[in-house]
Automatic annotation (TrEMBL):
Protein family membership: Belongs to the class-V pyridoxal-phosphate-dependent aminotransferase family. Csd subfamily.
Cofactor: pyridoxal 5'-phosphate
Organism, as annotated: Arenimonas donghaensis DSM 18148 = HO3-R19
Example GO molecular function: pyridoxal phosphate binding
Record protein name field: Cysteine desulfurase
Domain spans labelled Aminotransferase class V: 26-394
Alphabetical keyword list: Pyridoxal phosphate, Transferase
Keyword set includes Transferase: yes
Function: Catalyzes the removal of elemental sulfur and selenium atoms from L-cysteine, L-cystine, L-selenocysteine, and L-selenocystine to produce L-alanine.
Domain of life, per lineage: Bacteria
């Protein structure tokens, strides 16, 4: 096989050949959503051109082809994270997955005196669903702090993981700081105390090898569009016992075995949690994305992104007045930064005129921004399809903009 040819792989992404404001696009917003390679686009296109039908309903040829394409994608995706396909619920993304756990697992089980433990680095998708549960149950949220370099404060975690904690939800990789949390160690701690763990894998799956059983969590949610797949796709893995015990979240077609007005017999998991016609073509595309990533190799991708991150960090750190948020060892290729005297939005707007796409804002993490005492940051997030030339353009772009703004 040999080492991946990164420039050839980059050529699989049609949008990366675009010009923006007369300049070649430099796409550094992959933590927000990744770009899509030809095999993913082709898989969805082919589904609609040749196989389109609903799943699990029709006996005709196209119906069984569609069902096979959908279930085949589930198997490939399950293989990608090393779990049995019947433990993988297909969802519209991380947000849906976490809400499913909140409504089906937490809502019937929690009450006054119970605690949901979160961390300060969570995305709103891993905060707000738990607040909704607390409003209805009387449970309370407690928050684990972070260290100045943006790592999880494990001493603080230990001290807050007390007998009243029923659930611990935290991110695998921070979308703002790039911090990679020691998921397996933390889950081991929680498990000893009988605390159920929910992991937000949104930013992990696209960038490193994730073997869910090794992590020892109870639930693992992820989103398809950040891992080269289409928007509106994702998955939630849950321990079989939870899937059996949890009531359905949404009711409708597909999730039943038998319905009468006296009552309904639910389908087996994972179908029990997949009410209604799913995003069939999207899931097919996500299956192709998992294959594409696996073909390159997650270890190769991680090494490539770490090399780009090292250069970018060194280059950006040398710019006067530039501050990077999140410097924990082993972090992922996400660089949140501010330049002294410049507003994040002004920076991002002027960088856009250079063809450089970075995100500015609160990154759906208000509590984390409040912790650092800033309303917003700029964030350059990398993927394997980025190049060293693009890193240099980012640094040169920031230097130019800085002179304009100061
Ligand atoms: N968690 C994290 C860490 C994220 O970065 C994101 C996406 N920005 C989400 C959750 C939500 O993912 P989605 O919007 O695809 O449901």
């Amino acid at each position: 096989a040999g080492r991946p040819d990164w420039l050839r792989l980059r050529a699989d992404f049609p949008v990366l050949t675009r010009q923006v404001h007369g300049k070649p696009l430099v796409y550094l917003d992959s933590a927000n959503t990744s770009q899509k390679p030809q095999p993913v686009i082709r898989a969805m296109d082919e589904f609609y051109r040749e196989h389109n039908a609903n799943v699990s309903r029709a006996v005709h040829a196209l119906g069984s082809e569609a069902t096979e394409a959908y279930e085949g994608a589930r198997r490939r995706l399950a293989g990608f994270v090393n779990v049995p396909p019947d433990e993988l619920v297909l969802t519209s993304g991380t947000t849906f997955g976490i809400n499913l756990v909140a409504y089906s697992w937490a809502l019937p089980r929690l009450g006054p005196g119970d605690v949901i433990l979160l961390t300060r680095m969570e995305h709103h998708a891993n905060i707000v669903p738990w607040q909704l549960v607390c409003e209805r149950t009387g449970a309370k949220i407690r928050v684990v702090d972070i260290t100045p370099d943006g790592a999880l404060d494990l001493d603080d975690l230990r001290s807050k993981l007390t007998g009243d904690v029923k659930l611990l939800a935290f991110t695998h990789v921070s979308n703002v700081l790039g911090t990679v949390n020691p998921v397996a160690d933390i889950c081991r701690m929680a498990r000893k105390l009988g605390v159920v763990t929910v992991i937000d894998g949104s930013q992990a799956l696209p960038h490193r090898s994730v073997d869910i059983p090794v992590l020892g969590c109870d639930f693992y949610a992820f989103t398809g569009h950040k891992m080269l797949g289409p928007t509106g796709t994702g998955g939630l893995w849950a321990r079989r016992q939870h899937l059996r015990e949890m009531p359905p979240f949404l009711g409708g077609g597909e999730m039943i075995k038998e319905v009468s007005f006296e009552g309904t017999v639910y389908n087996e998991p994972p179908h029990k949690f997949e009410a209604g016609t799913p995003n069939i073509a999207g899931v097919v595309g996500l299956g192709a994305a998992a294959d594409y990533l696996a073909e390159i190799g997650m270890a190769e991708i991680e090494a490539r992104e770490q090399a780009l991150l090292a250069v970018a960090t060194e280059r950006l750190s040398a710019i006067p007045g530039l501050r990077i948020f999140g410097t924990a060892p082993g972090k992922a290729a996400v660089i949140s930064f501010l330049v002294e005297g410049a507003h994040a939005h002004d920076l991002a707007t002027l960088l856009d005129l250079e063809g450089i796409a970075v995100r500015s804002g609160h990154h759906c993490a208000h509590p984390l921004m409040a912790h650092f005492g800033v309303p917003a940051t700029c964030r350059a997030s990398l993927a394997f399809y980025n190049t060293h030339v693009e890193i240099e353009k980012l640094a040169a772009g920031i230097e130019k903009v800085r002179k304009l703004l100061l």
